[in-house]
What does this fold into?
Amino acid sequence: MLDRLVTSLTSLRLTVVLLCAGLLLVFVGTLAQVHEGLYQAQTRYFKSWLVWRPTIGDYQWPILLPGGYLLGTLLIVNLLAAHAKRFQFTKKKIGIVLVHAGVVCLLLGQLLTDAFSSESAMRLSEGEAKNYSQDFRANELVVIDTTDPQHDEVVSIAEELAATSKEIRPEKLPFALRILNYWPNAALLAHPTNSSIPIPATKGAGPGLHVVALKPTVSTDERNLPSAVVEVVTPQGSLGSWLVSCEMGAPQEFTYHNRNYQLALRFKRYYKPFYLKLAKFTHEKYRGTEIPKNFASRVRIQRPDTGEDREVLIYMNKPLRYNGETYYQAGFDPKNDLLAHKVTILQVVRNPSWLTPYFSCALVALGLIVQFLTHLIGFAAKWRTA
It folds into this structure.
């Protein structure tokens, strides 16, 4: 049994099958972007182990496909197992070893990048300081304990859990959250329409408002704005139900056992141990045109734990690398460009394995050079002897 498994893992046929399955997955995943959107298709097809009911054409077919993680892992195992069983190390094969090591490193680096990297945005107006960035797509249901005036305690609940669970009992909270209604994408209205329904909330800003359930967007230029009606349930009974939505700016507030809480559904936040304050934003254009020439944000880094307080300039092709993250000048808010307080948008990228592709390509290049020179020197030696 073990011999069969080893033979299968080291088989060249398995390599060919995995490469063909990868081509099929890329083809299906690319076509699925039309119906599922770029972000959803990347996550579902290439950042998963298995894909159930893939979208092919206009339909979801009841079949199971291997995901990108599964194919990548099997390719790594197949390559390492084949080397361990068949490969015999000699001086003439040093280049081949380096090439294959670079390929393995590249696959592992991509897996680590997908698992640990994150992209978010920080929106700052002039004079404003923030210690968090917000995710482009993901949302979160949060309960914030604001009793202590010095700091807040935030309990974050993933949007997937809020969308699929009827009742959530966080360990750090003395009450439970009951999800009465959830809309993946919705619009809030002050007055009823033919397609709207009244919001069944009893507290906060929800009573009197109406909601229109919208089809989830697949456009890369838009994002879903989910809404939910959440009931707070204590051992003594219900405190009421509140409307929470990414469309609403202010969180909903309530009190329990002499502690103040806020309830909100918002874009997922990534908190930092420092503050970024926008001192000045400049938007330069080519003279006589509306063509952008340069965007620049002068920000002040304020870190209370170390006492660091300094200014840096972020502009196009000159990002800020700090605390394991890279801050790029991504854009600005054109609505506020002519106002006194201009707004900049910084893209925040965290990628612990960002050096892996460079190292992998260097290994492959070095292996090709060594292999070429080995054969060239051997050929030259035989030619001289002849």
Notes: The mean pLDDT is 91. Residues 356-385 form the longest helix (30 residues).
